[in-house]
Design a protein that fits this description.
Helix content of chain A: 40-55%
Order of helices and strands of chain A: EHEHEEHHHHHH
Shape of chain A: globular
GO biological process, one term (chains A, B): glutathione metabolic process
Largest interface: A-B, 23 and 23 residues
InterPro entries (chains A, B): Glutathione-S-Trfase_C-like, Glutathione-S-Trfase_C_sf, Glutathione_S-Trfase, Glutathione_S-Trfase_N, GST_C, Thioredoxin-like_sf
Organism (chains A, B): Novispirillum itersonii (Aquaspirillum itersonii)
Strand content of chain A: 5-15%
Subunit structure (chains A, B): Homodimer.
CATH topology of one domain in chain A: Glutathione S-transferase Yfyf (Class Pi), Chain A, domain 2
EC number (chains A, B): 2.5.1.18
Distance between the termini of chain A: 36 Å
Structural class of chain A: alpha+beta
Oligomer: homodimer
Chain lengths: ~220, ~220
């Protein structure tokens, strides 16, 4: 049995869930909050973070990109990295762009201030951080537009891990209704395409306790 | 001609320089400050960060891990990722550990407060951040000890990209004399081994303008 430790609020866990779905690999999902660091979980991942994947043979894998590279090397039937070495580099560059730059400039400020605080209760969101995330997201949506005006998918002609990574982050921001889709119609067209894939369904059906998504969140034709 | 845009203060650029050295690939190095975002540099890397590598065929590569994976796939004579898929995953997990966790908890606080401020002049270091970095480094050196008590190198029997990544970060902290080597003799033994490799020589000879390293920095038998 394959087990994934994940959390709704982790874009990195979302990325791995989408990759497992795209590669049609069965998995049992276990909820694990990063802030609930049990000894048992720290023994699996000393970094104390989701996602952690336990393969059917018992192998424990940590760090989302490490997990994705492992799945890519092991389950080759549905490839998510292109074959050509320069195109693989372009895909990985964009994965790093969203996992580091988008994460820092958009996902982290908005998710920690709005989603996490709403879920856990307590202080109201700090409006300065919310403003930072809402301002920065425009640059990134403009970049997605720039890329998809030149290519079918973010890294080239085929859907890759770059699209999945970007969509994993955006799906979280979309859950709180903070993606200004109307200002970026090309980025929206790209997102509609990836959101319609079967791997996305479980994410769209999921409700984070205490926080209802906006109506369009699960709508494939929003 | 191969060109690398790098900066002394970037652990990520150091990592790529060490990989190029280990793989014996000639390169012309060009200094580029992250904070000096010329249009010309942004055209190479819209993220505005070093390292950026331009290959002899003109291919532009950004993001240190993307560059390392590219070099690994292209120049296979000196491999820095193991052959076995689980060992590759362990190597990448540790690369991510140092590039993200060590970077956030140790490299960033110490380098931005001490090295960057000393180099650029201006405000004195914020002692709170310096204390954060100096406290956190003990956990990481203890982790290196734990690993090297069980394995010859960080990720297993052979030297890999995990060792190079960890050493790239530590070499920067060592430059400001903030690695408490005497408290962690096993970690020191491991660092002496990697520091003695020819790929390390250019880094050890380099002097950051305005900041002299401690005496032991370039000493292979410190």
């Amino acid at each position: 049995m394959r087990i994934l430790y994940h959390h709704w609020l982790s874009p990195f866990a979302r990325k791995v869930r989408l990759v497992l779905g795209e590669k049609r690999l069965d998995v049992t999902e276990t909820l694990q909050a990063d802030w609930d660091r049990s000894d048992q979980f720290l023994a699996l991942n000393p970094a104390g973070e989701v996602p952690v994947l336990i393969e059917p043979n018992g192998l424990v894998l940590c760090d989302s990109q490490t997990i994705c590279e492992y799945l890519e090397e092991t389950y080759t039937e549905v490839p998510l990295l292109p074959r050509s070495v320069p195109e693989r580099a372009e895909t990985r560059r964009l994965v790093a762009w969203f996992d580091r730059k988008f994460q820092q400039e958009v996902t982290h400020p908005l998710v920690s201030e709005k989603l996490m605080k709403r879920m856990l209760g307590g202080d109201p969101p700090d409006s300065r951080w919310v403003r930072v995330g809402r301002t920065n997201i425009h640059t990134h949506l403009a970049y997605i537009t720039w890329l998809t005006e030149r290519r079918k998918w973010l890294a080239g002609g085929a859907m890759t891990l770059a699209d999945i990574t970007a969509a994993a982050h955006l799906s979280l921001i979309d859950y709180i209704g903070d993606v200004p889709w109307d200002d970026h119609p090309f980025a929206k067209d790209w997102y509609v395409r990836i959101k319609s894939r079967p791997c996305f369904r479980p994410l769209l059906k999921e409700v984070i306790p205490g926080v209802l998504p906006p109506k369009h969140y699960a709508d494939l034709d929003f």
